[in-house]
Specification:
The structure is a single chain. By secondary structure, this protein is of the alpha+beta class. It has two domains: about 140 residues, Fructose-1,6-Bisphosphatase, Chain A, domain 1; about 110 residues, 3-Layer(aba) Sandwich (D-Maltodextrin-Binding Protein, domain 2), CATH 3.40.190.80. It has eight helices and 14 strands. The strands form four sheets. The chain has a seven-stranded mixed β-sheet with strand order 3-4-5-6-7-8-9, with helices on both faces. The termini are far apart.
């Protein structure tokens, strides 16, 4: 099993946050638009307060950056060497629509790199966790965790994980390039951080994201994927990192297995879009 002293407590906190969210699910919860027009609900805030209190109790010396409390000046964040990066409810739009495809995300960041990440599914109790060099696991509710890893060759068709809600012209061009290389693509559509987890479990081959995401959307699941022998690269082929920046938006990226024979071809395809 993955060995990091904080991990067992963080897994339990993620599960508790999921339990705090569920009473609001499929209950006509009031939705408020934030300044950037993204939705927030009482469920987001309930999970945020639980995680913030739990992480501050676990590690009083490590600051917490949460989507629901991100108004921390860059000058302060730039001094941090380690921090928790939290999305209390990733996939709020899925949650509002009544879908099960929303998650609770917590990652520990050190010098801009993910140490480990935990991604929990409130509706079924499933939890993914992992980190680069630590391995990756999936634990169903009340069951032992089992190790997961990426697949380095397609099973039948080359399977691309795509967002139901977010595409872009560049993403469509990348899919066309993949189709020319691999033939007919199988498109798998799933919400929230579960896109990375699908890749980490070996149920898909790549996840291109050429549309906006924020740091808290990706860090925890990137930890899981990296532990499962995958990687997340920007369009120049560099690892996606989390240094303090003015904007919390990520660049476009592709998530893929580290050892796939076609890795360099995909990076070349992505570079042509940059």
């Amino acid at each position: 099993m993955i060995s990091h002293p904080h991990l067992p407590v963080v897994i339990e906190l993620v599960r508790q946050a999921g339990a705090a969210i569920l009473p609001f699910w499929r209950c006509d919860t009031e939705v408020v638009a934030k300044l950037d027009d993204s939705p927030v609900t009482a469920a987001d805030l309930a999970a945020h307060h639980l995680l913030l209190a739990g992480l501050q109790q676990l590690t009083p010396e490590i600051p917490v950056l949460s989507e629901e409390a991100a108004d921390i000046p860059l000058a302060e964040r730039a001094r941090w060497t380690r921090w928790w990066l939290v999305d209390p409810l990733d996939g709020t739009k899925e949650f509002i629509s009544g879908s099960e495809e929303f998650t609770v995300n917590v990652a520990l960041i050190e010098q801009g790199r993910v140490v480990f990440g935990v991604v929990g599914m409130p509706t079924n109790g499933r939890c993914y966790f992992g980190g680069n060099g630590l391995g990756a696991w999936c634990a169903e509710a009340h069951a032992p965790a089992v190790p997961v890893s990426v697949r380095v060759a397609p099973a039948d068709a080359f399977t691309v994980v795509a967002s139901r809600r977010h595409s872009s012209p560049a993403q469509e061009r990348l899919l066309e390039g993949l189709s020319e290389r691999f033939g007919d693509l199988q498109l798998a559509s799933v919400g929230s951080s579960l896109k990375f987890c699908m890749l980490a479990e070996g149920n898909a081959d790549c996840y291109p994201r050429l549309a906006p995401t924020s740091q808290w959307d990706t860090a925890a699941a990137q930890g899981v994927l990296e532990g499962a022998a995958g990687e997340v690269l920007d369009l120049k082929g560099r690892a996606l990192t989390y240094e303090a920046r003015e904007s919390f938006l990520n660049p476009s990226f592709i998530a893929l297995p580290r050892a796939a024979a076609w890795r360099d071809e995909l990076v070349q395809l992505a570079r042509a879009l940059d």
